[in-house]
Amino acid sequence: MKLTLGAEIALPEGTDTFHLAKTALIAEDGALWGVVNVEVDGEWEVRVFRADATGLTHHALSGPDVADVFSAQTLVDLGDGTVAVVLSTGALRILDTSCSVIADLAIGGEDALRQSGLQIAPSTARGRSDLGYVLRLGSRFGARTLVPLQLDTASGSATWGEAIALDGTSYPTDRYGSDDFEGNDAPTAPVIGDVSTAGENILICTEGSSESVLKYGMDFFTVDRLNTDGTLAERLLEQSGWKRMPGKHGWTGRITSDADAIILTPIFASGEWKGKQRVLSLSDGDLSPITLPRGASKSTVLDVREGRPWVADGRERLLLCEL
Question: Model's pTM, two decimal places?
Answer without folding.
Answer: 0.94
